[in-house]
């Protein structure tokens, strides 16, 4: 399996995550615009992977600046374009800020050298993300017990990152230690990232799993079949409130009702310490047709009114622990996340 | 629109609920076996509608007994076949018991007359169900306030019954009184009865609605957009525990967490007063491919392991009120459902 995203021969190659697992197709991006469209249409998704893609998009934007064009203006345009693709994941803005810093520092380099410098930075972001995920796995693996059954939602695996995964990284690290683990996979409507991506990844890793419809999770918690929940995050406020794929909030409420632990796994660049609470996190509303269809099939009347919030916010009080590359934080998060602020990479 | 199910020209005609709303196709059943298959494959579904269909199945079974065949043995075979189709809905067994009673009472009639007598009984069950639904609507309509927004799950509408609906019946009765109502419709994976059937019915009735994925309900409760929940039921134990479509349990937990009312609507023939609690209700596990597909589209790996419980049980303590044709019952149900025991029809 090729990586989720990689730089090859002057272009960014991504596995098209809309088509998995039925087709394994790769998309080539040769410009910042190509990357922006790939993020918008969810060819690539998952907060850390979006950050990596955006960084490559910035590099491509500068590499493609034509002689005589206004570099500053073109750079700002590229940043604006990429920043406008998806509003919720913090990693996107983090990556754009980091790339902007490198651009400013190296502004006096010849244009070609500047492009290469930005490309190197994007590659560093990718490499660091993979390493970060392994650290998240190592930090969190003791939260999973031998014989455990763990529910995960959406895809916080290798496909959502430069590789290895955040929530799946923890499960995987525990599994690689020899623990017997069973994973329940929420299919995750409307775009079915659980059924399509997480099931595909766990199958390749040989980790035993059961796929369920999202609305079965509560009942399987009640029956004792699900014993804890681990998800990723798209943005975490400084009080510990965590935005993640729609449906995560319901799982956190259900876990609390059944007395089960609910864990969130994310790299530090998912944290937005500038936000006091999750109420300040913008929630993307996506196209109605995503709900009106499943896979490529229409499932309802063509014009039925729809709500399609792509994310929700889990209040900190429902989160048992947050795992990052720095370790495990527990409530009260306002106090216990503070030491991670200084450690922020980038 | 033709009724959900009707007797015409010596056969039972049902709208094929697997194909709605994309196709409006009618299936003809000419034998008890045809009816049994229609119930198993969910051409017809919804506890009250299954009861009506089973009653017609029994009548067809007796009408089709060949001269010289052992009537008693054939009757028992038909009852066994129909009883084995789906285990959870009480109405199926209630209808078979009622038809068996009529068979025993009229055992000495000539075979043709006995068949007609059973057919008349099935038609009565159908007519009574429609009337019962209107009474449920009248009983429950005051639970819905002007300007309310109500979530419903699966389909407890005209298609789940002989007509009018139970949960949808309440919404409809309130709407017909002139109340401004907005309905949130859970799509209801895996078979999408909400997206396919409830959306189709509400559209025909002109009741404003918004379709959502099941995993959005909790977040819309938190945001204040959903203000109460009304569902049907497939079987209710004498302590008030209520089995209904998978996902209903999660909604009841979420409603309680947000301080929202959670109502169950069902006719008396859905009650199983012989059961002390919901723990005794058998929960059907349906084929894995229902979860592996959505509509006609495969959505995951072909062999991924799946759980597919078709129902769950809402504990009585999470139910704000139960509505039947006899009125509204509130906790404690052990005491407050007692007056309904004697009133059981059939």
Structural write-up:
The first copy, chain A, has 346 residues and is α/β, with parallel strands linked by helices. Chain A has 2 domains: 5-134, Up-down Bundle (Four Helix Bundle (Hemerythrin (Met), subunit A)); 140-343, Rossmann fold. The first copy, chain A, has 12 helices and 16 strands. Chain A has helices at 32-40, 47-63, 71-83, 90-105, 111-140, 167-176, 193-205, 217-222, 248-257, 289-292, 333-336, 338-341; strands at residues 5-8, 11-15, 26-29, 148-152, 181-186, 209-212, 228-231, 235-237, 242-245, 262-265, 271-272, 293-294, 297-298, 311-314, 321-324, 327-329. In chain A, α6 (167-176) links the parallel β4 and β5. In chain A, α4 (90-105) packs antiparallel against α5 and α5 (111-140) crosses α6 (167-176). Chain A is globular. Chain A starts with a strand and ends in a 5-residue tail after the last helix. At the A-B interface, α7, β6, α8, α9 and β13 of A face α7, β6, α8, α9 and β13 of B.
How many beta-strand segments of chain A? 16
Under CATH at level 1, the class of the largest domain in chain A stands as Alpha Beta
CATH topology (fold) name of the largest domain in chain A: Rossmann fold
- Which spans of chain A have pLDDT < 50 for at least 5 consecutive residues? none
Shape descriptor of chain A = globular
How many helices of chain A? The count is 12
First-to-last CA distance of chain A:
29 Å
- Structural domain count of chain A: 2
In CATH terms, the superfamily of the largest domain in chain A is Translation initiation factor eif-2b, domain 2
């Amino acid at each position: 399996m090729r990586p989720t995203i990689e730089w090859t021969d002057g272009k960014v190659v991504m596995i098209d995550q809309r088509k998995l697992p039925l087709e394994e197709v790769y998309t080539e991006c040769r410009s910042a615009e190509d990357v922006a469209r790939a993020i918008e249409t969810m060819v690539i998704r998952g907060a850390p992977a979006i950050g990596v893609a955006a960084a490559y998009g910035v590099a491509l934007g500068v590499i493609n600046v034509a002689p005589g064009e206004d570099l500053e203006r073109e750079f700002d345009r590229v940043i604006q374009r990429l920043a406008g693709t998806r509003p919720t994941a913090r990693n996107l803005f983090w990556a754009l800020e980091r790339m902007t810093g490198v651009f400013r520092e190296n502004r006096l380099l010849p244009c070609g050298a500047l492009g290469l410098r930005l490309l190197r930075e994007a590659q560093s972001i990718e490499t660091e993300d993979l390493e970060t995920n392994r650290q998240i796995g190592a930090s969190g693996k003791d939260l999973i017990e031998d014989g455990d059954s763990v529910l995960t939602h959406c895809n916080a695996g290798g496909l959502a990152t430069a590789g290895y995964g955040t929530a799946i990284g923890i499960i995987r690290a525990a599994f690689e230690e020899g623990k017997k683990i069973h994973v329940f996979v929420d299919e995750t409507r409307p775009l079915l990232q659980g059924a399509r991506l997480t099931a595909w990844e766990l199958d390749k890793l040989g980790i035993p799993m059961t796929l369920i419809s999202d609305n079965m999770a509560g009942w399987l918690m009640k029956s004792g079949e699900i014993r804890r929940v681990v998800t990723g995050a798209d943005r975490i406020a400084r009080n510990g409130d965590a935005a993640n794929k729609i449906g995560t909030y319901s799982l956190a409420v259900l876990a609390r009702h059944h007395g089960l632990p609910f864990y969130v796994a994310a790299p530090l660049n998912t944290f937005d310490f500038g936000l006091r609470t999750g109420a300040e996190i913008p929630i993307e509303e996506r196209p109605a047709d995503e709900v009106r269809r499943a896979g490529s099939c229409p499932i309802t009347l063509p014009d039925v009114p729809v709500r399609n919030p792509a994310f929700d916010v889990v209040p900190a009080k429902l989160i048992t622990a947050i795992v990052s590359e720095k370790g495990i934080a527990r409530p009260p998060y306002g106090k216990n996340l503070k030491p991670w602020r200084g450690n922020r990479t980038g």
